[in-house]
């Protein structure tokens, strides 16, 4: 049987990594021995903390795939966020919780999408529906993904299904999710040894907004001002990205995970999209956005409207 590569998006977050590990394991349990969990980028510190905690190896790094490779996409569907060569892959499954955009295949596939807070919440449901036993380790991985995507169930993307999944999974993993979750999120906020360019790559997504090429990067922190100490370096790195990737707009969202606010650093020709969307005037290329923590739910849709 030819191998099936399972992976999440570029600049992988905890959901993309954990969901590829869990999905590859699920495929094996469903009789597909050739599923291999993969990743499209570096493991961030938050994910590293969780993998280390549950003593699980990171998925295998891949840069591109050959024509006709069988793949399963988790936590994304947009080709711009996927592996190089995705256009010529054979996509057999997608498990995702994002908008569907520009997605097309030549053959039928299994596609499961739900508007829940995390891909791992959908995987948890698949386990329950198929009577697949969840090991404490697998529970820990899914739990970590849901905590990450929902910022410990505080993000407005959180649904009742995510809450139920976290409660069940923390029982199986035998973990106090509030204690573990805060430790894991905090591990991801240590940005001290990232260069400005690396910081922009931790969690960045390119989206098309009405013909404008927009990149939105997000970092979690417990101290927004600490991150902005290096504003000049960040701006230089952002301007370089704008030139290299021909972007119309770059937004860096610096999100305070304790107080649930964000400050955005915004550069490019279409900074007006941000000003209009959030009804703010950028000062020193920045604006404070109270209560905004979710790029997917609170930033992308409104920006799309104003682009
Ligand atoms: Mn993700
Ligand atoms: Mn996700």
Polypeptide structure, described:
The protein has about 300 residues and is of the alpha/beta class. Helices cover about 40% and strands about 20% of the residues. The mean pLDDT is about 95. It folds into 2 domains: about 180 residues, Alpha-Beta Complex (inorganic pyrophosphatase (n-terminal core)); about 110 residues, DHHA2 domain (Diaminopimelate Epimerase, Chain A, domain 1, Roll), CATH 3.10.310. A 6-stranded parallel sheet has the order 3-2-1-4-5-6. It has a 5-stranded mixed sheet with strand order 7-8-9-10-11. The chain starts with a strand and ends with a helix. The protein is globular. One manganese (II) ion binds next to α1. The site of one manganese (II) ion has 6 residues, from loops.
Structural class: alpha/beta
Question: What number of structural domains do the residues give?
Answer: 2
CATH superfamily of the largest domain: inorganic pyrophosphatase (n-terminal core)
CATH topology of the largest domain: inorganic pyrophosphatase (n-terminal core)
Integer-rounded radius of gyration: 19 Å
Query: Per DSSP, what share of the residues sits in E-state strands of 2 or more residues?
Result: 15-25%
Q: What is the tally of helical segments?
A: 11
Q: On the 0-100 scale, what is the average pLDDT?
A: 96
Uncertain residue ranges: none
Instruction: Identify the overall geometry.
Output: globular
């Amino acid at each position: 049987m030819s191998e099936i590569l399972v992976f999440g998006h570029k600049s992988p977050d905890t959901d993309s990594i954990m969901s590829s590990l869990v999905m590859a394991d699920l495929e094996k349990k469903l009789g597909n021995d050739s599923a291999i969990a993969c990743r499209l980028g570096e493991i961030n510190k938050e994910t590293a903390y969780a993998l280390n905690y549950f003593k699980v190896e990171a998925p295998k790094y891949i840069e591109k795939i050959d024509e006709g490779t069988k793949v399963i996409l988790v936590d994304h569907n947009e080709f711009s966020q996927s592996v190089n060569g995705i256009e010529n892959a054979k996509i057999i499954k997608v498990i995702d919780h994002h908008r569907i955009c520009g997605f097309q295949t030549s053959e039928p596939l299994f596609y499961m999408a739900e508007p829940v807070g995390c891909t791992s919440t959908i995987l948890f449901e698949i386990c329950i529906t198929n009577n697949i036993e969840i090991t404490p380790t697998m529970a820990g991985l899914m739990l970590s993904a849901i905590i990450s995507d929902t910022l410990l169930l505080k993000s407005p993307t959180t649904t009742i299904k995510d809450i139920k999944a976290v409660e069940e999974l923390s029982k199986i993993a035998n973990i106090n999710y509030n204690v573990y979750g805060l430790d894991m999120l905090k591990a991801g906020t240590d940005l001290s040894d990232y260069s400005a360019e690396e910081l922009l790559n931790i969690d960045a997504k390119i989206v098309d907004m009405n013909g404008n090429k927009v990149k939105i990067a997000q970092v979690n922190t417990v101290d927004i001002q600490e991150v902005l100490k290096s504003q000049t370096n960040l701006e230089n790195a952002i301007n370089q990205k704008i030139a290299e990737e021909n972007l119309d707009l770059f937004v860096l969202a610096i999100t305070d995970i304790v107080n649930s606010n964000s400050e955005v650093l915004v550069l490019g020709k279409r900074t007006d999209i941000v000003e209009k969307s959030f009804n703010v005037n950028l000062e020193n290329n920045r604006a404070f956005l109270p209560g905004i923590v979710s790029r997917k739910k609170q930033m992308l849709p409104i920006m799309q409207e104003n682009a």
